[in-house]
Design goal:
The protein is mainly alpha-helical. It has a single domain, classed as Hyaluronidase domain-like (Orthogonal Bundle), CATH 1.10.3450.10. The chain is 59% helix and 3% strand. The chain is built from five helices and two strands, in the order ααααββα. The chain has a two-stranded antiparallel sheet. Strand 1 and strand 2 (90-91) form a beta hairpin. Helix 2 packs antiparallel against helix 3 and helix 4 (66-80) packs antiparallel against helix 5 (92-109). It is globular.
């Protein structure tokens, strides 16, 4: 007897965007995450937008844009914070904590040292096991 496959709760475009995010392709992840965001209702909409914004913060760091990165971290946290500890299989506690760690390190080193921020601090979108 075949066991039915568990349906993926994430929008297919969001799944593509998260895959790109997890590969470090933060700019490329923007388009599918934005499409998923535009095609869904809240609170999923807020989840996709928050992930997109954290990815854009990482992208801004890679471009040396200190203020842009801080702005995206702030927006991403604002979208994710009301969603609780997890949503649609995403471990939001870890995602928010990982982003907060990068933001704190960015603030610690300041805009003049942004190129020295270690990219290994950028963690993938964590899924619940």
């Amino acid at each position: 007897m075949n066991t039915p496959l568990k349906a993926d709760p994430l929008h297919p475009k969001a799944r593509t965007g998260i895959k790109l995010f997890n590969q470090g392709e933060y700019y490329e992840a923007h388009e599918p995450l934005e499409a998923a965001w535009m095609e869904t209702e809240s609170p999923e909409r807020d989840l996709y937008q928050g992930i997109l914004q954290i990815g854009l913060a990482y992208y801004q760091i890679s471009r040396g844009n200190y203020r842009g990165a801080l702005k995206m971290f702030r927006r991403g946290q604002r979208n994710l914070e009301p969603l609780g500890e997890s949503k649609m299989g995403i471990d939001l506690t870890r995602l928010k904590g990982d982003a907060r760690n990068v933001e704190q390190e960015l603030r610690r080193i300041g805009p003049d040292q942004i190129e020295q921020l270690e990219p290994t601090l950028f963690k993938p979108v964590p899924e619940l096991s």
